[in-house]
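Renewal narrative, Specific Aim 1. Our central claim is that a sequence can be written position by position from structural information alone. The example that follows is taken directly from our test logs and has not been curated for this report. It begins with the structure tokens describing the chain, in the order in which they were read.
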């Protein structure tokens, strides 16, 4: 069973097309108009061995908020669709002790006036073991 998904989303602020293959090789083609966000998504695909194609045209002349938020929504939808019935996937629960000892960083919601790079950074969780 192929674990792939293609999602399209069009709002007043963004137009997004995303294709995800969870069993890929880490190949990506990402164009959001936000260089650092593209960089982070490229790393997500590369290190997760996901193939990810993403095209987003957003109202960047106003703010990056809608682009980042809507890409997150579409990526979440694609992951959910690609996982299908989730057969063969085991859940891993993180206890406080594990998270503390493993130095899993918690992600806070960014304040509205933060710069684009900070907003993008908050989008991604980091695991430093």
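The sequence written for that structure reads:
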């Amino acid at each position: 069973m192929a674990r792939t998904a293609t999602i399209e989303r069009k709002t007043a602020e963004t137009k997004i097309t995303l294709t995800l293959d969870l069993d890929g090789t880490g190949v990506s083609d990402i164009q959001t108009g936000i260089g650092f966000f593209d960089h982070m998504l490229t790393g997500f695909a590369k290190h997760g061995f996901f193939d990810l194609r993403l095209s987003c045209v957003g109202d960047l002349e106003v703010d990056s908020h809608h682009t980042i938020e809507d890409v997150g929504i579409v990526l979440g939808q694609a992951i959910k669709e690609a996982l299908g019935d989730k057969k063969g996937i085991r859940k891993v629960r993180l206890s406080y002790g594990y998270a503390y000892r493993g130095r899993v960083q918690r992600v806070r919601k960014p304040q509205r006036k933060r710069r684009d790079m900070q907003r993008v950074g908050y989008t991604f969780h980091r695991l430093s073991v």
